[in-house]
Amino acid sequence: MNAIDLLIDDHEKVKDILTRLTDSTERAVKTRTELLQKLEMEVTIHTQLEEQILYPAYKEAGGKEELKMYHEAKEEHRTVDSLVLPDLKATDPSSVEFSGRVKVCKELLEHHIEEEESEMFPSARELFDKARLEEMGQQMSELRNRLKKEFTASQAA
Ligand SMILES: [Fe+2]
Ligand SMILES: [Fe+2]
Question: What CATH class is the domain 3-156?
Fold first, then answer.
């Protein structure tokens, strides 16, 4: 599969989880807990696919504009992974605070996804030919399988 198509599929999945989370109420503690776990897994794995495979190739193939986009996107990943998600996980899902934090998380991720899809991905499609994108897509699905196993094992532990 083409790497960019694979990443866009992931985005759809993440956006769907976020919508279900923001639609949930303070009473739906179990649903919220499950959705948050799912969100964490999807976002963590997706970020690794981008940061280990697409982003480095993009940085190398591109010029100054691409370098700026690369750093901006990495900074957004860092905000979500090391700040927003950990805070959310530490928040009582039956609280209104949780609802507020979910909303901010959704806005951040939607903004990030929008920028990738409207700026970085179209420029990646120009920088890389079809064969290269297919090759990266293959690497991504292998990495995803490996990370998914690790993630599931760590959640069960
Ligand atoms: Fe990203
Ligand atoms: Fe992405």
Answer: mainly alpha
